[in-house]
Design a protein that fits this description.
The protein is mainly β. The protein has 3 helices and 19 strands.
Length: 465
């Protein structure tokens, strides 16, 4: 969940990741398949590379997530492939080159459970339960070509097939247990459960300049073309013995609905990236990259048209006045803000056989702070910016290049919206309507271990250029 609202949490290639993603100008390896297909024209050796973020640990702490002194702490362990790809070219005709790769573009998962039990002033007991589970994964299948214009410039393009899946479930429940055994329990339950997958296509165009002491790269990724997708959705809201008669709703209320095989779509925005690399001396390089993502206007990922089940029969008409006209009870929406990320990387060639890598990159949140609306499904997403520091080394073992390193991601403490307020059932965070309260603070730490290997078809070059 901490990475679901970010574009730069997953990098393409081990060396590129340890350089903070500063690879748009080209790194003379298979990361060009992801960042800049044109730069494939200047890779010295054809090879197959296998990279994995072998271990990722995320620690997320949110103070007052569920009310005053009601905090949460969660962790996440993930093992995932980073980039598996290869580059092919002919020694007879080196103008055209072909590359193929599979890489993880988005990966996040989270599970948080919490229960609050306290005594009310009248002697009754209040019990609040919160349970959220979220998992998102998007994999890109890349087919790339480069065309060498001359000794120093090239054009390229990458055709991308993106397959995305997301499963999300959220339960918020409260019970007021009376001190008098003759009284009845009052309760509120809200359940959301959906699962969708989607296939979309993308086209990335690129240009590269390559000189002995300077490289320049530029890419443009066109907005995604939705191909097909399906979703399952289930949602229920119920009140039993509602003591506050909130918004004149009945004391007992059930609204529920579910549907399978709903059409689903997902959008990736127009983006453009620019990179430059400079040779500082005979062996050292410094790399810069930046990428701009245009905003995505609010759209529907899926929307169920099944008729809802409601009790009492006319209760849904009472609820309808709470809905914005453009949303429905079984609709999942998404949107994205304008984002610019940047990175810088340093590469030192200690010798022809090994070197060190270091990098820094931003990972700004692309989504607006989620505001709960009863008229739509609103998942709890990240509201945090992340700043990544990385470092590692590469070396040749039996003429195969092995790269390893460590990355640390930090989110400075930030004020954010409470997930729910179990201290005060009448607070704006608890009922169906009202402005949200930004009373929680969150911070985050991410540790990631990188490990990768390049299997070369020919011997490593005697001279590193």
């Amino acid at each position: 969940m901490a990475q679901d609202n970010h574009y730069w949490s997953q990098m393409g290639g081990i060396s590129a990741g340890l350089l903070g993603g500063s690879a748009i100008a080209g790194l003379k390896d298979n990361s060009s398949l992801y960042y800049n297909a044109a730069a494939m024209s200047f890779v010295n050796n054809p090879s197959i590379s296998i990279g994995a973020n072998t271990y990722r640990l995320r620690l997320l702490n949110i103070d007052r997530a569920f009310g005053e002194d009601l905090n949460t702490f969660s962790n996440q362990f993930v093992i995932n492939p980073d980039l598996i790809g290869g580059l092919l070219f002919s020694k007879k005709n080196d103008i055209l080159r072909f590359g193929y790769a599979i890489n993880t573009r988005f990966l996040s998962q989270n599970h948080t459970q919490f229960q609050s039990v306290r005594n009310l002033e009248n002697g009754d007991q209040f019990v609040g339960d919160f349970d959220i589970r979220s998992k998102t994964m998007e994999t890109w299948f890349n087919s790339a070509n480069s065309y060498k214009l001359n000794d120093h410039s090239a054009l390229g393009y990458t055709l991308i097939l993106a397959i995305r899946s997301q499963h999300y479930s959220n339960f918020i429940g409260t019970k007021i247990i009376p001190s008098n055994d003759q009284s009845e329990v009052a309760r509120m339950d809200s359940r959301i459960d959906y699962n969708y997958w989607n296939v979309k296509g993308l086209l990335r165009l690129s240009y590269a300049l390559d000189y002995e002491r300077f490289r320049l790269g530029w890419n443009v990724t066109l907005p995604s073309l939705n191909l097909f997708g399906r979703a399952f959705a289930k949602r229920e809201y119920s009140l039993v013995n509602n003591p506050n008669l909130l918004n004149d709703l009945p004391s007992d209320l059930v609204v529920t609905g579910n549907q399978e095989r709903i059409n689903a779509k997902h959008k990736y925005p127009f983006s453009t990236g620019l990179g430059a690399s400079f040779k500082l001396n005979n062996k050292d390089w410094i790399h810069f990259s930046t990428e701009m993502f245009l905003p995505v206007e609010k759209y529907s990922i899926f929307n169920s048209d099944n008729e809802l089940v409601a009790f009492p029969k006319g209760s849904f008409d009472s609820l309808a006045v709470l809905f914005p006209e453009e949303v429905t009870f079984m609709e999942l929406n998404d949107a994205a803000d304008f984002v610019i990320n940047f990175s810088v990387g340093y590469e030192n060639f200690i010798s022809d056989n090994w070197g060190i890598l270091a990098g820094f990159r931003t990972d700004f949140n692309k989504g607006k702070a989620p505001i709960y609306s009863f008229g739509e499904m609103t998942p709890n997403k990240s509201q945090l910016d992340i700043f990544h520091l990385s470092g590692g080394a590469w070396g040749y073992y039996k003429e195969q290049k092995v790269t390893a390193g460590l990355e640390v991601g930090l989110s400075p403490q930030k004020q954010m919206r409470q997930w729910v307020n179990f201290n005060n059932p009448n607070s704006p965070d608890y009922p169906l309507t009202g402005a949200p309260e930004f009373n929680a603070t969150a911070s985050q730490l991410i540790l990631r271990i990188f490990l990768g290997i390049e299997i070369n078809f020919v011997h490593k070059p005697k001279e590193i250029k």
